[in-house]
Amino acid sequence: MPLLPAAPMNSSSTGSTSSTFWREVSGARPGRVSGGPLAVQAPRSDRAAAHTFQDFQASVSDAWDIEEPLTPGPCAGGQGGPAQAVPGAGSHQHQSPQSITPVHTQNASYQNHQAASRRSPNRQNVGSRPQVSIPPSTDPETEKERNKCVRFENLLGQSPVNMHQLEKMSWSGIPGKFRSRVWKILCGYLPAGKSDEVLKRKRDEYNGYVNQYFNNKEEDIHKDTFRQIAIDVPRMSPLVGLFQQRCVQEMVERILYIWAIRHPASGYVQGINDLVTPFLMVFLQDFVEKDVTRNSFTFEELDEVTRNNIEADSFWCMTKVLDGIQDNYTFAQPGIQVKIRQLEELLKRVDMKLHSHIVGHDVQYLQFSFRWMNNLLLRELPLNATIRLWDTYLAEPDGFSKFHLYVCAAFLSRWKSELEQKKDFQGILLFIQNVPTAKWHDKDISLLVAEAYKLKYMFADAPSHLTECRINKPLL
């Protein structure tokens, strides 16, 4: 313990020299047991022993708990005068444990001042930057979706909308609350700029077609077309309760009939009815809070104007899609026949082992891929997964006509291990026609289109590898 010489003694000094010659610097010392030298020399009794670390901590001083005065101040036992002698100092006289008072409690006012002036920092953080409280981390997927929504909101707030940027952002999926508008823009139905007048004009035009064409559906020239439509519509998406409602079926009948009348080169062909489904569900979602692909909803609860607008928007967007693949539905469906041959040639070059396994058991590509091309995989995927797939199709140039081929090749390769376990014709064909995709979600579709993108650019510098697939004789 540092000691300083006291002032010179005079004749009036009392007490022994040993008790008055030295005086103690004020303040406690780090690591020193509170109570002075006597407390150190006094033997501890069993009752005073520190049984826990907290007891020991309370009986000692700490370098971070005590402010060392820069100049000598008042002594612990007086008001600035010489330190008074401690009776029995230097002797082996015992002191009661109750007389040992911790420094922290010797002066209540000093203790309160210390607590208010500063708080002792953590020893482990001495010399480090102050810690900033960080809010608890959210789910990465939720944060990613939130950031995507912000980007779409900023982009759609521009006038006109940057189409290149919109296609780029939509390729990996569109947030649900923006999907309806983005689909209309990507289909070319909704202009990228201000569009209220255009929408009103197109909706009025469709209502005019309904009044012009639908009233003559029972005429002999169109009777067969409408009868086939009336047969196919109730078969649409049997697992979705919405399409079992009669008012919805009547709406789809009008859409398909008017399209067939206005496109006499192809007319109505089975499979076109499935292409209405994604548009109808997406445009309906704008007016329903719950997910319409998983929950039942009464369509008649919507007002008539809203129902008419959904019908008109679905008609025009379906028309835009079919304009790019109309040769799939003309006489003998030459577009589908070409795509089947291209799929076979593509898989032969990508995975010869899988191709040999399929054809080696007398399975023909026509037997399973015709439906893939005719219905655009709508019968192979759940409705929510189909909607996510169409996000990419609409964002991809020629998505429904060309990129769909690579998606089908990636889709077939996805089941390679399962197919190689099938050792006969029946097992292979039944599996391909009933692939287990009932629980597929957005992540599964994202992986599928990523594989398709790889296949597309694998042959990007050799585009003739598919154009050589000509129809020498009809497959059908």
Give the key terms.
476 residues; mainly alpha; two-stranded antiparallel ribbon; 2 strands; 50% helix; disordered N terminus
Structural class: mainly alpha
Distance between the terminal alpha carbons, to the nearest Å? Answer: 106 Å
DSSP summary: helix tally: 21
Percent range for helical residues? 40-55%
How would you characterize the largest beta sheet? Answer: 2 strands, antiparallel
Biggest β-sheet: strands ordered side by side in the sheet:
1-2
Number of strands: 2
Supply Rg.
43 Å
Q: What form results from the Cα inertia axes?
A: globular
What ranges have pLDDT less than 50 throughout 5 or more consecutive residues?
A: 1-22, 34-48, 68-110, 115-130
Q: Topology as H/E string?
A: EHEHHHHHHHHHHHHHHHHHHHH
Mean pLDDT: 78
What's the quick description here?
50% of the residues lie in helices and 1% in strands. The chain contains 21 helices and 2 strands.
Characterization of this structure:
The chain contains 21 helices and two strands. It has a two-stranded antiparallel sheet. With 476 residues, it is mostly helical. Mean pLDDT is 78; it is low at 1-22, 34-48, 68-110 and 115-130.
How do the helices and strands line up, and which of them pair or pack?
Elements: E1 3-5, H1 17-20, E2 22-24, H2 37-41, H3 53-58, H4 108-117, H5 140-156, H6 163-170, H7 176-186, H8 196-213, H9 220-232, H10 246-262, H11 276-285, H12 304-324, H13 334-350, H14 352-360, H15 366-375, H16 383-395, H17 399-414, H18 416-420, H19 425-433, H20 442-458, H21 464-467
Antiparallel strand pairs: 1-2
